[in-house]
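INFO batch 0412 | record 1 of 1 | parsing
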Amino acid sequence: MTEPVSPTSGPPPKKPRRPSNLPPGLVLSVPRAGRELGVSRKTIDRLISQGLLPARRLGGKTVILRRELEQFLAGLPVIATVDAALTRAAAHDRANGRLHEDIAR
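INFO prediction complete | emitting tokens
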């Protein structure tokens, strides 16, 4: 009789290979791009399908160039600047009867 094969026997699973001419970190998988942005894979897939985030096929996988991910982020609208935040804080303080300069001390 043959001995049962344990799930840990045999060669270790192969690590996905990166083409040798690409520096590490240049290309991101969809799940990795999601982790780096703090969003789900589904969100990344939606951004790709809407044409908002460029993607490519490499070795049968969808990949995103880091440079294009950074350009996508840089193109997002700025929701607040320091000046705007200070202006809102000063208006809030005036509305509550406080002087903004007093709070800074």
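INFO post-check: Residues 25-74 form a domain with the Multidrug-efflux Transporter Regulator; Chain: A; Domain 2 fold (CATH 1.10.1660.10).
INFO record closed
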